[in-house]
Amino acid sequence: MKNISLLAALVLFAACQENTKKREPITVNYPTTKKVDTVDNYFGTEVPDPYRWLEDDRSEETEAWVKEQNAVTFGYLDKIPFREDLKNRLEKLWNYEKVGSPFKEGDYTYYYKNNGLQNQYVVYREKEGGEEEVFLDPNTFSEDGTTSLMGLSFTKDGSKAAYLISEGGSDWRKGIVIDAASKEIVEDTLVDIKFSGISWKGNDGFFYSSYDKPEGSELSAKTDQHKLYYHKLGTPQAEDKIIFGGTPEEKHRYVGGSVSEDQKYLFISASVSTSGNKLFMMDLSQDNPELVTILDDTDSDTYVIDNEGSTLYLVTNREAPNKKVVVVDAANPTPDNWKDLIPETENVLTAGTGGGYFFTEYMVDAISKVLQYNYEGNLVREVELPGVGSAGGFGGKKEDKEFYFSFTNYNTPGSLYKYNVETGEYEQYWKPQIDFNPDDYESEQVFYNSKDGTKVPMIITYKKGTELNGKNPTILYGYGGFNISLTPSFSIVNAVWMEQGGIYAVPNLRGGGEYGKKWHLAGTKLQKQNVFDDFIAAAEYLIDNNYTSKEYLAIRGGSNGGLLVGATMTQRPDLMQVALPAVGVMDMLRYHTFTAGAGWAYDYGTSEDSEEMFEYIKGYSPVHNVTEGTAYPATLVTTGDHDDRVVPAHSFKFAAELQEKQAGEQPTLIRIETNAGHGAGTPVSKTIEQYADIFGFTFYNMGYDELPNQAVIKEFKD
Fold it and tell me: Where is the Peptidase S9 prolyl oligopeptidase catalytic domain (predicted)?
């Protein structure tokens, strides 16, 4: 369908909108997307791939298509009457000072800070009793703010630092080494670092990980052999020694190395997917340390959290789906010698260390509970948190007597608290001065039944006094994968949505980690449909209980959450008015052929595994389930042209399918951010523009000609 008008669909419910006038239609003329005869054969089934050519991110043809699509999309967005009001409101609310938790390195205390609308956070430092000074300002790395700081690591004595930068949002990093006191660069820039931190060995050098540069496009070509390197200062990167991952026997997709705080051990994690890892160690006090195996299978997620001499403390979900802390001697570190220190509970554990104590954060229905233990495994105290929500940052160095933690929820902007490890007392260290009153809003947690009867929690946040009349604009946000948990946190963009009378609802879908490994596995591979069913049931709950209705419901998610939106809108296009899939995994038959995508097979399986798996994946793959003659919701697909995590071809193909087959009057557009990646490090200016467009598109396609709460707009204009 090449020419559509919004008028027909909107008129149907415009009458029930107060203060809504009839409007002129916005006509959309989609670019013609050519089709090719590419066909793949899976277990005897032929599957056409007519938009395969869009996978070539280096071709002039793809570049021209991107420009044409953006011209159409921005032409549409430009006609939304309140788009500029949303952008201005976002800017005003965003414009407050933000501060990260301080940390001590050498003679200085460092912290991240943003004065309000800076594109990137700046790293500051100060000596005790001294003045604040800028240490690193990523806003100077590029003119447009698209080069970001993506990692900063100091030597144990704080005299040297190495930091990683990303250009245009790419996962490929460059590493720069500086003298901390003078801030001067001390050697050549390292290149082609990927999926890696930096871990120093004394002052002589550091460990990092990367892949060989792939043949073809570095933004989309497959990378599947990760290697751990050691870089000795003062030597060329070409001479860096491969520590692990260089042989066929050591081939893994993800390899990482970290040096213990006392500098005695190097711990190496090796994985073939995003779940499960092998674990090795080296004794760095020896001249030629041997590789010692701690764990030689990938049946668990296990890592070393600390050591005292040769005593190792590990966090694992091996035979403990909700995780536990175990202790073992480095002389015999294999699982048969592990002893429980902090046993598994019914709630999922995340553990940190600081000041000579363990801090265990538990998720109780996605809400934080924090306990403090000593190194004998005895409970010291429960930390009474400032409220109901998410706490983070409990941890520091062994010698720290105090550190800082953060607290937030959906209607409370994040604040910092200074915690005394011995007394358990804390005080508020920093509170944001933001033009938003949390007391005007409320969150409630509900539990609803999914299709198979499974109880799923959901937190719904909105302005106090909201009438549940089925007419509230609502965003249903989800993820549901990779053992990732969605816990309550404040967002400026969601605050703008809610002050316009919007409802923001977040269900904790299966596939996530909110209830441990079993909850995760219940949303993987041949159980992936459970995730979509959970999301659909959440939408039905909101509608059945009059929070909203189909005409005022938008669904949103990014990355794996983009897949969630794509699958939900193709399975139940009747359920929502607006769909907002961001940087989504949309071609499930080919996702594993791009960059590090094969590592996601633990969650998804692949189309090559078996005929059963192929048929199952094909049954929900968004690109393959757009059906001719179906009326789909108004859709704004978003992606970045430098996304090398989930390559933009996923979104390109999905948008092309929607534009060809949409039978309804709703627009199906794609917004492609240039010089941007998967999301991390995106400049504030670009983020504000993106959300002005996303919310503008959403409100407009819910029938609004002006923002629901025009008084807020008028107030800040005045």
Answer: 488-701
Per-residue pLDDT tens over the stretch 593-635: 988 788 899 999 999 999 999 999 999 999 999 999 999 999 9
DSSP E strands in 376-411: the ranges are 379-383, 390-392, 402-409
What is d(CA 565, CA 450) in angstroms, rounded to the nearest whole number? 17
529 CA to centre of own chain? 21
3-state SS, residue 516: helix
The pLDDT tens digits for 169-198 are: 788 899 999 999 999 999 999 999 988 999
DSSP letters, 680-696, are TT--HHHHHHHHHHHHH
83-111 pLDDT per residue, tens: 999 999 999 999 999 999 999 999 999 99
Q: Say yes or no to pLDDT of 549 above 50.
A: yes
Task: Please tell me the distance from the alpha carbon of residue 234 to that of residue 491, in angstroms, as a whole number.
Answer: 44
Name the strand (E) or helix (H) holding 507.
Answer: strand 503-507
Please report where in the chains the tokens 């189909």 appear, as a residue: 550
Q: Distance (Å, rounded) from C-alpha 539 to C-alpha 542? A: 5
Q: What is the Cα 627 distance to its own chain's centre?
A: 30
Q: Whose CA is closest to 341, among 368, 369, 379? A: 379
Q: How far is CA 450 from CA 129, 529, 532, 575, 624, in A?
A: 57, 11, 10, 15, 25
CA distance 164 to 173: 6
Q: Which amino acid is at 580?
A: L
DSSP 3-state of 72: helix
231 catalytic? Reply is no
Rounded-to-integer distance, Cα 525 and Cα 655, Å: 25
Catalytic annotation on 285? no
CB 27 within 8 A of CB 599: no
Q: Cα(595)–Cα(69) distance, rounded to whole angstroms?
A: 25
- Of 421, 426, 370, residue with least CA distance to 396: 421
State how far Cα 174 lies from the chain centre.
21
Listed residue (196, 323, 207, 357) closest to 267, CA to CA? 207
b/e map 53-64, b = 16+ CB within 10 Å: bbbebeeeebee
**DSSP helix/strand/coil, 526:** helix
Q: Which of 226, 642, 650, 678 does the annotation list as catalytic?
A: 678
**What is the number of residues in the chain?**
718
∠ CA 606-41-614, rounded to 5°:
30
pLDDT at 681 over 70: no
pLDDT tens, 190-230? 999 988 999 999 999 999 999 887 776 666 666 778 999 99
- What percentage of the chain reaches a pLDDT higher than 90? 84
Q: How confident is the model at residue 556 (pLDDT cuts 50, 70, 90)?
A: very high
- CA distance linking residue 199 with residue 687, whole number of Å: 31
Helix, strand, coil distribution of the chain in percent, nearest 5: 25, 35, 45
Q: How far apart are CA 302 and CA 314, in angstroms?
A: 7
Query: Could you tell me the pLDDT band of residue 9, with boundaries at 50, 70 and 90?
Result: very low
- Residue 6 burial (CB < 10 Å; 0-12/13-18/19+)? buried
Whether 315 and 328 have beta carbons less than 8 Å apart is answered as no
CA–centroid distance for 672 within its chain: 19
51 closest CA partner among 499, 649, 541:
649
Residue 20 has pLDDT above 60, yes or no: no
Burial of residue 221 (number of CB atoms within 10 Å: 0-12, 13-18, 19+): middle
pTM: 0.90
Q: 273, 415, 450, 559: which is the annotated catalytic residue?
A: 559
| pLDDT tens, position by position, 110-143 | 999 999 999 999 999 999 889 999 999 999 998 8
Contact 176, 163 (CB under 8 A): yes
pLDDT > 80? residue 447: yes
